[in-house]
Amino acid sequence: MTPLDIVWQWPETPVTIAVIIVLAIALRWLILRAIKRATNLAVQRAKDRRPATKDTQLQAVRHAARTATLGSLLRSVTNAVISVLTVLTIMAAMEIPLAPLLASAGIGGIALGFGAQTLVKDYLSGIFMIIEDQYGVGDLIDVGDVIGTVEDVGLRVTRLRDASGQVWYVRNGEITRIGNQTQGWSTAIVDVPVDPDENSVKVIGVLGRVCVEVHADPELGKLLLEEPRVVGVQSVDAGRMIIRIIAKTHPNEHFVIQRAILDRELQALKEAGIRGPRVVPSSPTL
Amino acid sequence: MTPLDIVWQWPETPVTIAVIIVLAIALRWLILRAIKRATNLAVQRAKDRRPATKDTQLQAVRHAARTATLGSLLRSVTNAVISVLTVLTIMAAMEIPLAPLLASAGIGGIALGFGAQTLVKDYLSGIFMIIEDQYGVGDLIDVGDVIGTVEDVGLRVTRLRDASGQVWYVRNGEITRIGNQTQGWSTAIVDVPVDPDENSVKVIGVLGRVCVEVHADPELGKLLLEEPRVVGVQSVDAGRMIIRIIAKTHPNEHFVIQRAILDRELQALKEAGIRGPRVVPSSPTL
Amino acid sequence: MTPLDIVWQWPETPVTIAVIIVLAIALRWLILRAIKRATNLAVQRAKDRRPATKDTQLQAVRHAARTATLGSLLRSVTNAVISVLTVLTIMAAMEIPLAPLLASAGIGGIALGFGAQTLVKDYLSGIFMIIEDQYGVGDLIDVGDVIGTVEDVGLRVTRLRDASGQVWYVRNGEITRIGNQTQGWSTAIVDVPVDPDENSVKVIGVLGRVCVEVHADPELGKLLLEEPRVVGVQSVDAGRMIIRIIAKTHPNEHFVIQRAILDRELQALKEAGIRGPRVVPSSPTL
Amino acid sequence: MTPLDIVWQWPETPVTIAVIIVLAIALRWLILRAIKRATNLAVQRAKDRRPATKDTQLQAVRHAARTATLGSLLRSVTNAVISVLTVLTIMAAMEIPLAPLLASAGIGGIALGFGAQTLVKDYLSGIFMIIEDQYGVGDLIDVGDVIGTVEDVGLRVTRLRDASGQVWYVRNGEITRIGNQTQGWSTAIVDVPVDPDENSVKVIGVLGRVCVEVHADPELGKLLLEEPRVVGVQSVDAGRMIIRIIAKTHPNEHFVIQRAILDRELQALKEAGIRGPRVVPSSPTL
Amino acid sequence: MTPLDIVWQWPETPVTIAVIIVLAIALRWLILRAIKRATNLAVQRAKDRRPATKDTQLQAVRHAARTATLGSLLRSVTNAVISVLTVLTIMAAMEIPLAPLLASAGIGGIALGFGAQTLVKDYLSGIFMIIEDQYGVGDLIDVGDVIGTVEDVGLRVTRLRDASGQVWYVRNGEITRIGNQTQGWSTAIVDVPVDPDENSVKVIGVLGRVCVEVHADPELGKLLLEEPRVVGVQSVDAGRMIIRIIAKTHPNEHFVIQRAILDRELQALKEAGIRGPRVVPSSPTL
Amino acid sequence: MTPLDIVWQWPETPVTIAVIIVLAIALRWLILRAIKRATNLAVQRAKDRRPATKDTQLQAVRHAARTATLGSLLRSVTNAVISVLTVLTIMAAMEIPLAPLLASAGIGGIALGFGAQTLVKDYLSGIFMIIEDQYGVGDLIDVGDVIGTVEDVGLRVTRLRDASGQVWYVRNGEITRIGNQTQGWSTAIVDVPVDPDENSVKVIGVLGRVCVEVHADPELGKLLLEEPRVVGVQSVDAGRMIIRIIAKTHPNEHFVIQRAILDRELQALKEAGIRGPRVVPSSPTL
Amino acid sequence: MTPLDIVWQWPETPVTIAVIIVLAIALRWLILRAIKRATNLAVQRAKDRRPATKDTQLQAVRHAARTATLGSLLRSVTNAVISVLTVLTIMAAMEIPLAPLLASAGIGGIALGFGAQTLVKDYLSGIFMIIEDQYGVGDLIDVGDVIGTVEDVGLRVTRLRDASGQVWYVRNGEITRIGNQTQGWSTAIVDVPVDPDENSVKVIGVLGRVCVEVHADPELGKLLLEEPRVVGVQSVDAGRMIIRIIAKTHPNEHFVIQRAILDRELQALKEAGIRGPRVVPSSPTL
Fold first, then answer.
1. Chain D residues inside the 8 Å CB shell of A255
2. Which CATH number fits the domain that encloses residue F240?
3. pLDDT, tens digit, 9 for 90 and up, residues G78-125
4. E178, E142 in Cβ contact below 8 A?
5. Domain extent for F145
6. Is E117 in Cβ contact with G114 (below 8 Å)?
7. What's the number of domains chain D is made of?
8. CA-CA distance, E100 to E222, in Å (whole number)?
9. Model's pTM, two decimal places?
């Protein structure tokens, strides 16, 4: 049938086309509505499962941003898919030969599909990471290659800024695990080396007193979630006995606490007359 | 055939459509019931194969959670698949041209399939890990990249919190092996270095007496499953002879036991006048 | 043709359907019987090729368990495949449109196939490892990432418990090579360091006498398969000459033998007045 | 139908062909216009999300270059695809047998598709990196294998020149993460080793004064974004206590600052009579 | 056409079926014969290309075993393939609807194919390794992960026993290169360290005399293929000059020769008054 | 239709065949012309984007070689493709059954396609590397595994000769990044160690004077692009302070410059009475 | 149509079959001839591009061997492909149902194709390596995992024998780069360590004189392509200054030259009274 026949096949073909268009519009409305509800639901459910954080205000802003990003993507995809399908179905109803079009699309689709798989993977990973709210702008995250503060949560790439000021663009599909340092607390580990001939009970006593002082310190205490603990003799070797102290701090404050405790403990040990590690060429790990 | 023909082909087409819908509903009911039974059976069977743990209460809670998670997923998938198939079959019965739809779906499905394979892999891994009950909320697990306490068992990602307080989102498909430290016991290994000229029998005697004391200690003894054993001379080198002690402890208590035994052994050796390792620049592994 | 036509096409369609069902049942019976024989045969053949072990009782139990596991899986697969094919063929005989169903299944199958390949790989690996009887419950195996005692041989995962008490779930498809330490013997290697200026013949003589004593020891001798051998000077360097002793032991008893021989050799050398290694800062491998 | 029939089937076939050509031209015009708008929009959106940089002039030049590169590619692809489809559809309308052509193209497309996937991946990565404006000519970027200044942003490869003058051609698809050192600031980290017996408070005082001087220096101060900070005792060991200084600098100026601060701190410590690290054979990391 | 029609379409359908069966039997006979000849030929050709070994008896046994293993596999595959094709062709001739069967098989084949590729790879590798006779039972081979003596040459896995007695099951497809230590000779490399101030000509003279003695030794000489050679000064550093000796031995006898030469050379150097390496803390590689 | 029918269907089939052949020849002529223009254009464009180099003569030779290599390949491919398509279309016009041919080609194409993908990848990489003129014969390039001088630029492999005289054949598809050391300059980095107690200002003065001398040297100066710069104190540790000198040289002349500067600096320091690094057992990196 | 019909459709079907057979034989003759010419041409072209070597006799032998190997493979493939296609086309002409055959072949082809891709890759790599004449029997090559002398150049595997006498079977597809040490020359690099306080000009003078002597040596001189050069001070550190000597030798003679030069240089330095490196515990790389 050629296009000219349409005029003569009145009213069959036009009616079929009209029915197809009406169905397409209805379907689009239904899908968009379903997307809206599903997005809201998924985001809501993720929020419920996420570890509680203090800032409700921030949560609300993030929630809105995530819903907007996802909704925009899914709406674009829905529009594109329904348009293409409607046009193709109308062409089929008009009996325009679709075979070359579909065959070419098939060959092209497969040829492209191999190369585009990382792209699809990036987007799918991005969608799920956003739905599951694994991180948001301002979180300090560890994505394997890079540790940095999130500056932008995208569907394909995530933009981070690391401690040295460098900006990183990381493809979402390349992230196999995410460590979020902002959801919870951090831990400062301080290893204090002393002479192996010192009495460990006495050393632990000195160290413990400093822990109490640090916790009582008005400035440092604010960074701590609980009093630092001296957990005991970590290892011993010719020339060195290592006593470990562990402190739970607010997120990302462990470096400050680590340096402060180390400095104070060294001074306390000197005052208490406890000798530092002896000069030993090298100490293999036990 | 155009939609307008349906009216005239009474009663054939409407009856066919009605039969299809009835069949779809019956099929859905059958599948949902099969899923329920299969899930229960699989979860039950996994429970039987799992190493016994003390807390039956906890097991029941976990069992319910797992059945709910799996059932919810499988019900959603069943509903989606049956709806799509029913609509397509009705369209075929109404002789609406399906070729463009199916061809597009095919091309899109292949193009997406390449990129979505990690997603499918994550979900399938998640389903099987949940069915097999490899770990539950609160278990301390080792998934290769991360060691932490499970906070959430999801179908796509598992959320852990490691010892330093960082939250980890690990994709289930990336986990090739899981080490569950909570199903069984832990082992504390203490290597005590002494002077290589000391008599090994005497040293082992001193160390053995401390082992008995540690086991008799009211606090430490509770963490031990059996008396620590001095297994003998582990290695010898210029300047250092290493004696190894092994202790079986309750899950995740081995660090505490390790430090306690090391501290006590060092004091016992000092009291017994046994010299520590000599200062040797470096000792290559034997 | 619509379902209503079936009534009028008597007796053709019902007879065709009946023939199909009868054929399906016959086929199922044949395949199940073939599976039974093939499983038995394969398991039997694997047993013949396997290195001989002492415990025939254990072998029989394992044989039964393996046949049961495999048979159960293959029977489920056969039932599922034949049911699906029978239903589809009957639908084709009744002229219900199958195109949408098959096309959807095709698209879904490909999309799933990419993601499910690790799952299929796990199962196929599991099936062959069970048929070939590479290991059984209680064997100590090395699967690359983990070394442990097998607690459960599954079709998808193998459950191990390592020496520290941790339980490991390892996917069968991830295991590219298996080292079974229980099928045969173990080897203890003891490297004894002495002063490089000592006469090697004299040292080897002293060490050899201890080897004879260890073999004669009632307790240690039971763990040995043959008398330990002093194989000679392994390497020499400034400050250290290493003499190697090798002992063949019963499976997994080499650590005990290793420590016992090392301890006795050190005492024998001290008694014989042979000096230990000189203090040398570091000795690069020759 | 053979070509000779066209003459006799007047006017149907020629009219169909004319309609196809008109539709193709219209479609091409529509797509080219859509591409132009989409490119502008995407580039604009990326610009809005990008971290602010000082040079608006440079931004405008880059924006034009990116739009031109993308537009040129997309126009070529559009022309090629529409030409091929138009020719195929006309051939179908003329009833020339297309099967061998399409089948060959399919086989060739699949065979090529496997090998060409890295090519497609490179182009797709290039397109997205240009749209998202991850870097531009003159930026110093880290692409994993190579760190260098961008000399050319291509769709398939990016040309960099590293610090040693070597030119690098890196395929865009091989870049899984990009670190852009020019978008923001750099950080200079200076670790100053002193004798562990020195008083840390005194040492930090001396170092702090130098930091103030460096910031006041007319030449060095221009490179700094803020006054360098002495963050405290980083680690301690037999023979060495390390104090860390951190300075935020303009992009890529941290090496200059690092060397300048290190040099000045050493002189200041010598003047203040603070001893440097003691000679210790080797210090294992804490 | 339904099965009932067969009776009435006499004699066409039965004759067609008979012809198909006769053709299938003839084809099977032809293929089995071709397999036999091809296997013999391939195995024969591999034998001609293989490095010559002494034991013709062993070769004959191996040749028979290989031909049997391959023939058995290929016969099973031929039988299975011809049976399936014959049944399908007969069903087509009887006009039973094959579409659902083939479509299901196609979908299942693709879905399985992804997961089964390692299985196919293992078998194909096994077949070629057996045809090419890369190793046989009793050979000491290096397959990358494991070095051991072959205990069983299978089509899917190869069973090895390593030097410590552990049994290894290695999948044939995972073996990318095989090193066969039994086809040829082994090489013992002895590095003798002396004082760097010693005269190298004199040292080489002493070492050379020992080489002659070792070659003349009735027991050690049997293991050697030629007299060991002192190849000269391998490297020099503060405190150590290394002279290298190389000896060609019978397969797997190099460890024995290595230890024997090292022991004798050390005694000869002591007798000749040549000093050993000086005590130097560590010598970086030149 | 059988071949015999051609005679009777005069003139339709012969005319169709003639038309197909004429179209094929015209198409071939068009494509060959397009290839010529596209190759020239692409090569020209790559030349414009490439960093400027001195030798225009060499560029012209290379340009001709590249155009010839690419043109030859593309002409062969065009001829092959058009011949196959013409033959297939003629066979279709003659109604010879093409199904078995195309189906076999399809199966073979897919089966081969999996294995041939590295081959296709090699060729495609080669084509693009030649178009983009990433390197030419005589350039010193770094392809990851190998660094050497290009001896032959092939479509599948590139032949290099490394510094030790070994010839390398590297597959183009395995090259993910290329470093061309001949397009630009090289950098010599000289690290001069001195005693940490020396005054850094004085040392830098001495070193700077040598830099001026080296630049003034008639022979060495020709290799330099600018005066070497003393960039300052690179690091400091117990026993050693390192001063870094950087010099920009003509391509591949940095090793000569490096050794010359190091030698002269050492002599200048000795003359100026500046002590070298103190003997310190080992200096961990800061 | 059943086979019985052939008799009645005389002469159409038999004539068609005869035409097909004649065409197949002609096609086979054409392809075999094309293969012969293409192989010769490719091998010839590769010979022209290959670096010149001395032995024309050897080249001729190799050329013949390569042409034979390739021709044999391509002839077998051609025969197989044409036979299959002829049989299938005849079956199609006889209207025997081909669908089940082709469908089964398709499913089997895809399922096998995944697993067989490494096999195809091995063969394709082998074919191209033979055409390009990258190495021949007797060449010493480096294939990444193994360095050895080629004993057999196969289409699937290459057999090497390494320096220790072990035979290696390496799959051609696993070889991503080949280093041929026999096509050109080798380079001996000798690093001579001396006291850092020695005058470098004097040391280089002494070393240079030995280089002249070595080149004049009747035996060693034959192995050298040019006089060894003292390239200067390679590095300096506390306790050690390293002077590098580079010598161009005939292929694989660099180890002999290296040891000879090192030995002679050490004696020359001793005679000239130049001190060796001082005893320094460890020297980090500059």
1. 231
2. 3.30.70.100
3. 888 888 888 877 777 776 667 777 777 777 777 777 778 888 889 989
4. yes
5. 140-180
6. yes
7. 3
8. 71
9. 0.83
